[in-house]
Amino acid sequence: MVLPVVGGASAWLLSWAGGGNDWLNLAGLVGVLGGVGWFATRFIFQLDGISEKAMQDLAEEALQKEEKHLNELQKRLANDRDPRTEQYLILLRENRTDLERIARTPGIELRSLEIVKQARQLFWAASDQLDQSMKMYELAQKLTGSEKQGVLAQRERCLEEARESSEHLRDAIATFRQFADKTLERDMDTLQLELAESIRAAKRSEERMRELQNRPDYERYFNPEN
Region 117-123: what's the mean pLDDT? Predict the structure, then answer.
């Protein structure tokens, strides 16, 4: 930036000393504007680079938080004496890794935005189902008799739905992989509808958990100080 601006300023000084010269005036203007333009362009590109790095840092930070949450969930699930819950979570995490890898396929990013969004929603909905199954297990350990059996029965339904969600996500990602390099808009639309239905089904477990939380014994066992 310095040389064009200095050159432009020098041309203006020479023009002034010489009583005004159109060519020197023009050279001065071009030099100064060129220097300023060069500086502005460089600043914008540097700003873009900084913004991109900031976005990457935020994405990496979010990913680390998600992985920490999933690791903690996996440790908790190890305490329910039921190998299915850990197996389902492992399957979910493997599917999630495949999803993120396929989503980075060149040329598919824009076309697959909605599918990737829905698949991520299904992943977290299924993870929540496993979390809810753990809460039901913990509640059941504090109950006896028919109440305990009732909560365990609801937990079984929740686990069955978690299994179905895991399998739906696996199948959706397998389909996604098949046309990752193709323009099959109709197939993508069908996959979006299937994912939307799977998400709705997964959300039903949340309703079941809310019903449990509304029970008076839920508060009594989980919040005894209240």
Answer: 92
Total-model pTM: 0.68
Handedness of CA 91, 97, 98, 99 (dihedral sign): positive
For residue 185 the two structure tokens come to 């808009």
pLDDT at 216 over 70: no
Residues 214, 220, 221, 226, Cα dihedral to 10° = 110
**C-alpha–C-alpha distance, residues 22 and 197, integer Å:** 73
At 5 the pLDDT is 42
* Total Cβ atoms within 10 A of residue 215: 13
Query: What mean pLDDT, rounded, does the chain reach?
Result: 76
Copy the structure tokens of residue 162: 């978690």
pLDDT tens digits, 176-187: 887 765 655 556
- Dihedral (C-alpha) 57, 63, 69, 71: value to the nearest 10 degrees? -120
